Batch of 4 targets.
Target 1
Amino acid sequence: MGEKRLEEKGLIVRHSAVELIEHWGIALSGLVLLLTGLFQLPMAQRYYITSLPGLSWSGDYFISLQVHYLASVIFIALAFFHLVYHGIRGDRGMIPRKGDIRTSVTVIKSFFGKGEEPPFSKYLPEQRLAYAGMAGIIAMLILSGLVKTWKNVYAPDMPLSIVLTATWVHNVFFVLFILAFLGHIAAIILKPNRPLVRGIFTGAVRLDYARHRHPLWLAEIERAMIHKAQE
């Protein structure tokens, strides 16, 4: 575990520098993919996006496509790095667990004053479910996008049925990606989750928040520290 307590500042490290780079790299490249995907519809000229400073290129299909390809290289590279890096480290905190759906319902009810939240480990059950959902969406976008790119670059005579299937899959999961992205933003706005915003930018959250809402996580850190001291 890479978590560290910053007692003098009343903080605890929730995300390492590597994890922050992963998160923001995937988020920003994903946002560029989302926008350039919309520009190819085309939408830029129709909604006067081309008149905005620095975005005159957005009305050019081929330039938008090249920017889309460039962002996809970064996006795929970081997604692959995420799998390899955390796989080697044995990180399993974001993998959904048995009972996550039931616990998520309990958490949602607590937002409306019906019952109380149970104690949590590092990640909330709805975060683990959202992670699995987003991972599936990203996987389908990458696979369908690779098929479309292969057709554009290497196989212009690819069977129409494959092209249409890849296009429909890409479009459907593109919409799901937008909805998941909006859901991610909406979840942060909820009052109980707002203390997590600090962690997204700095990697650390308030220690009193962690003690109140994530006591199981702190207990895991304590056990790891004791085990390390005994080695």
Note: The first helix runs from residue 17 to 39.
Target 2
Amino acid sequence: NVADIKKLKTSGICTIKGVQMTTRRKLCQIKGISEAKMEKIKEAAAKLNSAGFVTALEYSDARKMCFRIATGSDELNKLLGGGIESMSITEVFGEFRTGKTQLSHTLCVSAQLPGANGYSGGKVIFIDTENTFRPDRLREIADRFNLDQNAMLDNVLYCRAYTSEHQFELLDIVAAKFHEEPGVFKLLVIDSIMALFRVDFCGRGELADRQQKLAQMLSRLQKISEEFNVAVFITNQMTADPGGKIF
């Protein structure tokens, strides 16, 4: 019923495919969804959309929906086969001050430009975990590509994440936004993916918990990228000590 659909959407489950991508245990954790109701939801989703095998040819046709977003660098585009790909996660990692955030900012602009193979450009969502997002930098990049600064900024949705839990919760809002405006958003940026996990999980004693939570987030990001055909771009800072902190 309508109330159950609303409960699912509040939890970031907005499509039939989203139901199929969610475990039974996760569905039962949604307030107001009993085990019996969960089974009915799963059964209805299976009837509406078969999740069985397809031929490689059929999958090849489905992959034609993928697009690539240019990075602003011809050499990097060559390495990536044309740019960062939709329906997948692209991670850039390196030491402090090696250009990871700069590339994130450039992609916020280049994602709005028409590209190869009929790519029309679109909006961007930027999740900032380290307070490194700078609209003024985007204005400078917009000038490079001859874009109207205000129109470009209006196409970027920004949110500051303060804890690893908050970062995860924002993905439900992201999924809902992608569902509300299908095909409009082309890129999700998280800069950076690990910063808040390093703060919230301290030392080697909590390393296993941290890795499990991180794996859950990456799984959620992959499902979102496939469900809504968007590119996901994440940054990560290298560290020699997995139990250490970044100050």
Note: Residues 41 and 158 are 33 Å apart (CA to CA).
Target 3
Amino acid sequence: MDKIKTIICFTMISILLLGCSSIKQDNVQTKTLQVYSGAGLRKPMDELGKIFKEKYNIEVQYTYGGSAQILSQIELSRKGDVFIPGSSFYYEEADKKGLVGERYNVAYHIPVLVVPKNNPAEIKSIKDLGKEDVKVVLGDEKACAIGKVSRKILEKEHLYEKVSKNKVASTATVNELLVYISMKQADATIMWEDNLNDAEDVKIIEIPKEKNIIKTIPISTIRNSLNKDLAQEFVDFVVSHKGKNIFEKYGFQIID
């Protein structure tokens, strides 16, 4: 009888221990970093995320969008770990609101004119965007960095009002601009040069330096991050020699 009681008792303890072990295992969660990134940075950021996961076993989840959009999301949610917008303007806005940590510079965003490969409207310069019957698509200045800088470039040349009359569409992200040009739904746009690294069916026309406005891509941690040390590790990795080499691989001009 005592032997039977001992066996029953041992069995019950084993079941309880197994149950506790299962509960503990179910509650183990893989750490995740939430990174808010400008849509035009997707290619290098995706690759950096994969390498970071292999090195630290940390999942990197991205929220891609226009820089104004992702800044708004950070402000509303008060969540996230890392912020990398398309230009320093959005970092400065976030900093004024106390949303971000120290700034680090990654690379340059260089605007260029982009037209279909056969260039049907015979675009040769910024001035040609104001010609009669030219169909222009531009980034939305309220949504993305390329939209804001496009307006400034056109205003600098006193062309904004004239080109606005030729505008057939505005896009929330820089990636959508390429679709319009590739599909020949517009004659010209202004994009970041680095977004055209593998682009086919389009032609790039450089904007002279004196007429251009080159932007800096910054990165920082988010102040409300629940993974501050890990977020800083990711930022350090992005601005490391290895991280910047990945940006360079995708056509970005890096900042030493």
Note: The radius of gyration is 25 Å.
Target 4
Amino acid sequence: MVTPAAAEPTESKPLRADARRNRARVLEAAESVFAAKGTGAPTEEVARAAGVGIGTVFRHFPTKEALLEAVLIARLHRFADEAEAVVAADSADPGAAFFTFLAGWIEMSSAKNAYFEALTAAGVTVPKEKSGIGGRLLGALGVLLSRAQAAGAVREDLVTGELITIIIGVAKAAEYAGPDARLRDRAVTILFDGLRPSAGERR
């Protein structure tokens, strides 16, 4: 679901309350439709799912690519918010918090790749998000990794840069697995086993 903050337009002129609601409905519907049917799903289907006319969709998002980019940015904002909430919660089980967050990042990365590929295929270069989402995610990952290592749940020699490389690789592998949930879950399980300390390293 798209958060209210993520649903806000970037234009300098604020939208009326009803227009903001329509925009948020379109974004939420688009995310659901693209998740279920892929980024190639037609904009008309998004309009039907949102319960609005196609004109309303194009009023807020003049092109299909603009809609794809808006959904992508909304997802990234939401995930960054969730990451910071996990850090703030300071779980009593740092290992579980780390691996749950990591699984979510892998899933999000797979979806993000699909959006980027669709935009690139359309000849659209997605500008780097100016709100510092990447920095927020890296900061959260670093804190969760350190806590999990201190608790003995993750191998001590792992550093954040290596972890990012692993996430990218597993996200691509998850895309390759496609609808085969068993294969995706198995790949993630093998990854997580490799991140845990060996029997001799455990405290």
Note: The longest helix spans residues 94-121.
